[in-house]
Specification:
alpha+beta; 6 helices
């Protein structure tokens, strides 16, 4: 039997513990920022696109994303860049090795983080394979802030979610076959397309 002198502290702790349960399990509270990735144009100044051939449920199954698209863009030199963009409340499904879903079967052993050319506040996660024949670049956006360290973001956001509604994370993911092994990311079609897509999304 619990002493009555501990009753108030125990009740207080139980009430605090019920707050996140009530918010997320019963109320299902979530915030929508009013932006849609489908407002991102399928053409830019130097790019034209066609939809990729993913089946309709692919983004939901792989990334737990109800709002997503994947398109193949071609610039004026016919360089192809595949652009995948998804929004999800399940942040881990977007930031935890997105290449395993979006570029399945690729041996992307080389990883680094660079700054987006022309946008110093945007960290870009870069992946390439051994022979540098494939370039992958992705950007994570959450609550109008770009995420450099997803694990730290998750720790901080987990604390916020104790009392707040969920917010979506957006993944901007681009892949490009490389013609030479010395093409710099800053000069690549991938960098140009990623920046255009991000700016278009944020301008909504």
């Amino acid at each position: 039997m619990i002493s009555t002198r501990y009753a108030i502290p125990v009740i207080t702790l139980l009430v605090i513990a019920l707050i996140p349960t009530t918010i997320h399990s019963y109320i299902g509270a979530s915030e929508y920022d009013g932006k849609s990735i489908h407002a991102i144009p399928d053409t830019f100044n130097d790019f034209r696109s066609t939809p990729s051939k993913r089946y309709a449920q692919w983004g939901q199954e792989i990334f737990d994303a109800e709002d997503w698209f994947e398109r193949d863009y071609f610039d004026n030199t016919q360089t192809q860049v595949r652009l995948f963009i998804a929004q999800s409340y399940n942040h881990k499904r977007l930031y935890h090795h997105p290449e395993l879903g979006a570029s399945y079967g690729q041996n992307l052993a080389h990883k680094t983080i660079l700054t987006m050319p022309g946008a110093s506040k945007i960290p870009v996660h870069i992946l390439t394979n051994d022979d540098r024949s494939k370039l992958i670049a992705y950007v994570l956006l959450y609550d109008n802030e770009f995420i450099k360290d997803p694990i730290m973001h998750q720790l901080i956001d987990s604390t916020r979610l104790l009392v707040s509604a969920r917010k979506q994370m957006t993944l901007f993911y681009a892949s490009q076959p490389m013609q030479t092994d010395n093409t710099e990311f800053e000069k690549s079609a991938t960098a140009a397309l990623l920046l255009s897509a991000i700016q278009s999304f944020q301008s909504q």
